[in-house]
What does this fold into?
Amino acid sequence: MLVLPAELTQHQANACLAMLRQGLRDPAQAGVVVDAGALSHFDSAALAVLLACRRDSLAAGKTFSVRRLPPKLMQLAGLYGVAGLLTEAS
It folds into this structure.
């Protein structure tokens, strides 16, 4: 499972995406789950990071889901029309 940091704004986006992409390289994992439970300070860059991670996961033939997505980030995803792309992990 990949874990997002407590803060994910445009200032941390590139470093966070690079870290997530490292985790995507594990060939033993058929699916990618990102835990967003620690995320407390974010902007729209958090959505961009999650969507880029999703795109990379699907391109690698892996499933993608998010666990514990903060409600405010899900609302933001709804405003941008991308909420359906962020599948909630069970």
